[in-house]
Design a protein that fits this description.
The chain is of the alpha/beta class. The chain has nine helices and eleven strands. The chain has two domains: about 5-135, Rossmann fold, CATH 3.40.50; about 140-275, 2-Layer Sandwich (Heat Shock Protein 90).
């Protein structure tokens, strides 16, 4: 994620620990930026250089009505580093979609911490996108279902190696829809199945009354009642540990906004079936 950044806040005497943290962070997130906010000696802070992090002198941060001088006089250095945190995050959020603060006492990012960071970033960015976008602008065009699904399988199969994606739809099925929104919805459906333990995900076509429908069948575990009751409720419907619970709500919204829908047809041990009703003209 290119727009994800992390930061820590230290005084000069804690800079060695912050360097170790930055180095280990960059090892696992080479495409992200790590910032060290240094709360004292701003002139010297500008001289600190590294390929693993960028330094933000305390004087670069806007403290608004609180005022840097006022805060510096009422806190000791440890308290000041804590008090700076919301202002530093606000400063970084001007240029990054998601920013995570990491305590400088974490001297080495282990694989467990990396997974926790990834889960938190996934939750934060999905939540931000879900809250910001609202009802997106729909740009419909004539689409071939087989072509959409073939492209989607080509993109997803390498990143979902444990689940075989099978496409079995007629070449002649055409409909009017927004290709970007449709791919987002179907990708979330497929990823949801894979995250539920499915090793095979089959995509077939069916005519339901007057609607064209894509039937998504997987052989994962049955959905528990709690997940079914909150399946399309943001943040509540996830059955995977660390899941955000946003995949299916976003998928349904992406279809509904263009005249389609998603419904759970059935779920039993080894067979879960969703029907994605394709947009109507």
């Amino acid at each position: 994620m290119t727009n994800f950044a992390a930061c820590t806040i230290v005084a000069h005497n804690y800079l060695p620990q912050a360097r170790i943290l930055a180095e280990s962070f960059k090892k696992f997130h080479p495409d992200s930026t790590f910032y060290i906010v240094i709360v004292d000696r701003p002139i010297e802070a500008r001289l600190v250089r590294s390929d693993d992090f960028q330094v933000i002198p305390i004087t670069d941060i806007d403290f608004g009505v609180e005022g840097f001088a006022h805060m510096a006089t009422i806190y000791d250095v440890t308290e000041f580093a804590t008090a700076v945190k919301p202002f530093a995050l606000r400063h970084l959020l001007q240029t990054h979609e998601c920013v995570m603060y990491i305590d400088p006492d974490i001297k080495l990012i282990t694989s467990g911490i990396v997974h926790a960071i990834d889960r938190a970033v996934k939750l934060s960015t999905n939540m931000i996108r879900f809250a910001r976008e609202g009802l997106p602008e729909v740009r419909k065009q004539q689409l071939a279902l087989l072509a959409i699904l073939t492209d989607l399988r080509t993109a997803l199969q390498p990143v979902l190696p444990d689940a075989s994606i099978v496409v079995n739809v007629p070449a002649e099925v055409m409909f009017s829809g927004d290709p970007e929104l449709l791919q987002r919805a179907l990708e979330n459906l497929i990823r949801n199945a894979a995250e539920g333990g499915a090793t095979q995900i089959t995509l077939t076509y069916e005519r339901i009354s007057a609607d064209d429908a894509l039937i998504v069948t997987d052989n994962g575990t049955a959905l528990p009642k709690k997940a079914i009751d909150h399946l399309f409720v943001p943040f509540l419907g996830s059955v995977k540990s660390g899941g955000t619970g946003l995949g299916l709500p976003i998928a349904r919204e992406a279809l509904r906004v263009q005249g389609g829908d998603i419904v759970l047809r059935s779920t039993t041990a080894g067979v879960t079936i969703f029907a994605a009703l394709l947009p109507v003209a």
